[in-house]
Design a protein that fits this description.
single chain, mainly alpha, 0% strand
Length: 62
């Protein structure tokens, strides 16, 4: 997969950063990798859970 990656500035609270860093370490990822993994999982879950009519409406709104 030769997909370009976008850089996104992100502000996180210190406590959230620490939680993400610990979670990332548990799963042998960087914090950036952990955030990307969580967002990818959330998007997949959202697509899967949508009703067909909702998915069609969102696609036309873009």
């Amino acid at each position: 997969m030769d997909e370009k990656k976008k850089q996104v500035p992100l502000r996180l609270s210190d406590s959230l950063w620490k939680e993400l860093a610990a979670w990332a370490e548990d799963e042998f990822r960087s914090v950036n990798g952990q955030i990307e993994c969580l967002l990818t999982e959330a998007v997949r879950r959202r697509k899967r859970d949508k009703k067909p009519d909702e998915a069609k409406t969102d696609a036309t709104a873009e």
